[in-house]
Amino acid sequence: MEKFKSGFVALVGRxxxxxxxxxxxxxxxxxxAVVNKPQTTRTTIRAIxxxxxxxxxxxxxxxxxxxxxxxxxxxxxxAWSSIPDSDVIVFVVEADSKGIGKGDQMILEKIKQAxxxxxxxxxxxxLVNKEQVAEMIAYFKDEYDFKAIIPxxxxxxxxxxxxxxxxxxxxxxxxxxxxxxxYTDQTLRxxxxxxxxxxxLKLLQExxxxxxxxxxxxxxxxxxxxxxxxxxIEATIYCLKKSHKGxxxxxxxxxxxxxxxxxxxxxxxxxxxxxNLQLWVKVKEDWINNEQFIKRFKGEE
Length: 301
What we know:
By secondary structure, the protein is of the alpha/beta class. It has helices spanning 19-27, 70-85, 102-114, 130-143, 160-169, 188-203, 242-249, 254-271, 291-297, and strands at residues 5-12, 45-51, 54-60, 88-94, 118-123, 148-151, 172-173, 213-223, 229-239, 274-283. It starts with a strand and ends with a helix.
């Protein structure tokens, strides 16, 4: 009888390389915000994959970037700490990079220090020709002995099974850490906050998105007049400036309404119940450098 394997797999890479998209694709459900803007993921998000002879716990980490605030420092610290703490690393890079850039080299050095079995995924191969993909493979092969190198495009339904099989090969015998019923360690409140933030990131102007923070004030299951189940959710979107507050609300409240509508539609799919969502916007100047707020991203509150 084949032995049961388990372990924690860190998804690491620079910002906007497609880690969260890959995670959602593997799980088959959206658990991480996916936006074509850097620094979307702020905390570690775990996804649980239960297979016949293994349980794989993916840890999606914030993208490595040059920090400009205490929040940025915390995000980088979270990503760096996941490398030595994992059983397997999935290192995601972009196919259209010119060689190995400074950011990827920094990550590679941390991987070398940890000595953890690592699988390299070269993402976005749809953006380049085969020769460039071959060059990228050669660059990285010269730098490190990866357990596998997998070129793929998240946009073209990647062969998730190939990734999972390679990971499984490098896991050790171990127990199931989570119930087979679970697919993430995110609470419903976490999922709701991430969904609202994702919609805001997609809809707002460039200077606003990364200065927002969503807090779920209330999330309660109730019954409608027709005696059908409904989630009543109240959330606050915090932003850095009064001018940002005006942009988030929009003329006659239209932008906030759009954010709420798209978030509610996604949440109803996730929760499989009707959702009544109410949003407010508040200014919290320089919260990205406020220790009390940053503690929330460290899991200290």
